[in-house]
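Tip: read the tokens left to right.
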């Protein structure tokens, strides 16, 4: 439960006004660019860029490693890292070299031919995530969509089961939440869904095994598609034993298990799948594996792959609904290889996770010092705090712990002091380039702005 009273709302409103004024003062060029963007839907290149605590977004100029600069000439310490797309740090040299070789030295951004690098990437993903064979996409959304089509075709069942308040990209089937009656309903705000989502999907809260079993018992679930921990409604970690029970239930009721590692890749170089010993039938991943060069992938067992390839009623070659022209392009594959081989290596994760541990401990110390009803969670190289204590254990509880005014104030006060968090919640991600000093600087600022709030 949230104790909103613990924060004096008048103080919060006063500090928020002060930070809004400072944001406007610091960023005249960004304000002007936003005011002039008359030909963009919502004034931004992508409508989610309107998630802005300061009234207008900061306009991007340049980035390297963990540093990012805006058009007003401010440098930021970047813990948003493109919402994981840039988890490897911005533009590391190895990725630049591979991409510029592809674009410039030898040429060929996209063709209709495979490159030999693709097998290297497939083998490396197998080493890390344990799946036998891989196929590529340009986004994690598409990897999820194609995996969903495959499991429907292979099982002959119609429904996909998700965690409530999960996010797997703009996948039609996934926009479902647990409603007040405990059954699925369309996620609030779902834009133009093709059919009633309850026709295609089922839903259960993470950590609710009886709820999951009740849904699986219908016998119409082709696959359970989940993140190992929720990461897009704040982090929500699985309770001990949860994943073993999910695997047992999916097997008992004949459903496949798809694990989406797009964000939980922060748990280690083989994601949570390796870190926690999960046994999925399909793994989906995207974004960070090519350091933000458009890419995604799904891996499946040899057995599933053979069953799909043996089916002559499934058109996997042409227009059967699985694939895209630019998927697996020479450019995308080159960026994946460079990122996995040279940047997001097994060794790199050790430092990233150590820094996240320090980050989380620092947040917890500030929470305890002021006796705030907030709590912190860590998922490898990723840290999150929510405005509830104890920490929420379901998606719905995590959604309810959001506090828009408080969040906007903290994000704005951090930005005005040169620090960026992921805009949608209080999430910080460590890149291989994030240093101990960076973590210390964030904690000093966090302690200062929280201290002012509770004074
Ligand atoms: N899966 C997960 C777990 C994600 O967090 C996201 C995006 N935040 C996606 C899939 C979709 O990725 P993309 O927008 O690159 O398709």
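Filled-in amino acids:
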């Amino acid at each position: 439960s949230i104790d909103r009273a613990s924060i004096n709302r008048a103080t919060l409103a006063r500090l928020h006004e002060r930070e809004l004024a400072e944001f406007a003062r610091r960023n005249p060029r960004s304000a002007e660019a936003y005011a002039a963007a008359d030909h963009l839907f919502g004034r931004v290149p992508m409508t989610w860029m309107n998630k802005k605590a300061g009234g207008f977004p900061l306009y991007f100029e340049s980035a390297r490693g963990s540093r990012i600069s805006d058009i007003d000439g401010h440098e930021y310490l970047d813990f948003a890292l493109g919402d994981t797309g840039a988890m490897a740090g911005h533009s590391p040299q190895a990725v630049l070299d591979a991409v510029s070789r592809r674009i410039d030295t030898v040429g060929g951004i996209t063709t209709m031919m495979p490159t030999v690098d693709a097998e290297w990437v497939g083998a490396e993903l197998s080493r890390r995530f344990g799946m036998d064979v891989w196929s590529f996409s340009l986004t994690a959304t598409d990897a999820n969509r194609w995996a969903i089509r495959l499991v429907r075709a292979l099982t002959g069942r119609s429904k996909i089961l998700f965690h409530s308040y999960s996010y797997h990209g703009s996948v039609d089937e996934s926009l479902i939440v647990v409603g007040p009656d405990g059954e699925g309903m369309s996620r609030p705000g779902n834009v133009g869904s093709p059919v009633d989502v309850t026709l295609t999907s089922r839903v259960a809260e993470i950590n609710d095994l009886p709820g999951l079993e009740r849904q699986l018992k219908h016998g119409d679930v082709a696959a359970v598609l989940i993140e190992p921990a929720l990461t897009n409604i704040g982090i929500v970690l699985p309770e001990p034993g949860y994943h073993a029970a999910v695997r047992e239930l999916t097997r008992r009721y004949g459903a496949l298990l798809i694990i989406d590692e797009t964000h939980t890749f922060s748990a280690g170089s083989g994601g949570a799948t390796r870190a926690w010993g999960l046994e999925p039938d399909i793994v989906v991943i995207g974004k960070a594996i090519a350091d933000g060069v458009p890419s995604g992938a799904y891996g499946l067992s040899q057995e599933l792959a053979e069953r799909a390839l043996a089916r002559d009623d499934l058109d996997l070659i042409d227009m059967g609904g699985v694939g895209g022209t630019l998927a697996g392009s020479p450019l995308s594959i080159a960026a994946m290889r460079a990122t996995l081989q040279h940047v997001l290596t097994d060794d790199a994760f050790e430092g990233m996770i150590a820094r996240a541990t320090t980050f989380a401990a620092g947040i917890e110390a500030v929470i305890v010092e002021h006796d705030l009803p907030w709590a912190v969670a860590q998922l490898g190289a990723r840290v999150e705090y929510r405005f509830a204590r104890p920490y929420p254990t379901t998606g719905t509880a995590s959604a309810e712990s959001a506090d828009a005014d408080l969040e906007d104030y903290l994000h704005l006060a951090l930005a005005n002091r040169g620090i960026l968090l992921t805009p949608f919640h209080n999430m910080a991600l460590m890149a291989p380039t994030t240093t101990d000093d960076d973590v210390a600087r964030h904690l000093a600022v966090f302690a200062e702005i929280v201290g002012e709030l509770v004074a």
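Residues 420 and 455 are 24 Å apart (CA to CA). The mean pLDDT is 96.
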